[in-house]
Amino acid sequence: MKSKIISFAFVFSTLNIVAQEKEPGVKTFAKAVVDKFPNTRTFDVQYEALGPSDYDSKLFGNKLERGRIEEHNRFKAAFNLPFYASKSKRFVLTTSVRYKYENFGYGDIFNYQTNQTYTKDNQEIHYWAGALTATYMSTLFKKPVIYNATTTVDGDEENFQRLKGFVSGVLVLKRTPSTTITAGALILLDPSSIVPVTPLFSINHKFKNSKWDMDFILPQRVLFRRELLENGRISLGTELNTESFYLNLDGSNLKGVYELNQLELKSGITYEYSFTPKLIAFVKGGFNNVVSARLTEKGERTNRYVYDQKEDTQGYFRFGISYNLFNKN
User: Fold this and answer.
1) Which of 11, 189, 198, 221 is the most buried (most CB within 10 A)?
2) Contacts of 229 (CB under 8 A, 6+ apart)
3) Is the peptide bond before 199 cis (omega within 30 degrees of 0)?
4) What is the pLDDT of residues 253-290, one digit of tens each?
C-alpha cells in the first residue's frame, strides 16, 4: 500500500499540470509535482507531533498488551534532483533521498500474558530510502500520457534492507479549463504486495464562479482548496498516508528483521504560504486515525502479519518548509 500511495501522488500531481500543456517538458513536470507534494521539492524538512493515544495489540492473533503512547514525534527530510533530461524535454531522470526519525514515549503498559503492568523505554527509529525515477511524457489516442518507472532501496541505521519498484501509465481522459480527469494502472514490482496491479484515477475540478477547487486522487486524498491572503492557500479535507520502518528484534517469539507498515487517515486543515517562488512553508493540523499498524517479516506480504496494533484517534500538528531550486515564478 505504501508504494501505491507514493506512486498515486507522484503520477497524478504531475499529470494535473502536464495535461494542460501541448508540449510538456521539464519545467512543466517539476511545477506539477512540487505544487501538491512538498516532499517532492528540491529540499523539504517536516516535523510532526502527535497527541497521546491508547493502543491494544495482538501477537500471532493472541492478545499481547494494552497501553498508552504518551509522546510520538516525527522528523522528515527529503532531497530530490532531476539530473538528466532529453533534448525533447519528454524524458526525465530524477534521484531522491529520504530520511525519517521517529520517537515514541510510553506510559504504563499491561501485558495480557503475564497479567503485569510495566514501563517501556523510549523508542527511537531511523529510516532512509533512495530512489531513481524515469518519466516519459508522450501522447496516446491524441491525449497526454505519462509513463513512470521507479526503483527504491531502503533500510535502517544498521543496514540496507529491501529493493522495491513500480511502473505505471496514466492517460488524460478529459481536459477543460476547469476539469482534468485521468486514469491508468500501476504495477508493483514487490513480492510483498498483496495486489500487484492497481487502477489509478483522479479528478481536479475548479467550481464555477468560486475560488474553491477540488483535488481528488483515489485513494490518496480528497481536498477542497482556495487562495487565502496574498501568496497563501488553505486546504480542507482528508488524506491517506503511510508510515513504515524496520525493527531488528531478538526476542523469544520474534527474531530477525521485521517491517512495520502503518496506514493513517488524516483529516483537518492546511495553510501554505509562499515567502518567495522558491521558499514555501506550511502548517497543518487535525485528527489522525490509524487504520492499521501491522508487523511482518521483511519481504512478507502484509496480510501475513505477526503483530497487529489498534490505536485511538489522536490529534496531530505538522509544519514544514521546502525550497525548490528550479522554480522561477
Assistant:
1) 11
2) 273
3) no
4) 899 999 999 999 999 999 999 888 888 999 999 999 99
Cell of 71: 509522546
3-state SS of the chain? CHHHHHHHHHHHHHHHHHCCCCCCCHHHHHHHHHHHCHHHCCEEEEEEEECCEEEEEEECCEEEEEEEEEEEEEEEEEEEEEEEECCCCCEEEEEEEEEEEEEEEEEEEEECCCCEEECCCCEEEEEEEEEEEEEEEEEECCEEEEEEEEEEEEECCCCEEEEEEEEEEEEEEEECCCEEEEEEEEEECCCCCCCCEEEEEEEEEECCCCCCEEEEEECCEEEEEEECCCCEEEEEEEEEEEEEEEEEEECCCCEEEEEEEEEEEEEEEEEEEECCCCEEEEEEEEEEEEEEEEEEECCCCHHHCCEEEEECCEEEEEEEEEECCCCCC
- pTM to 2 decimals? 0.87
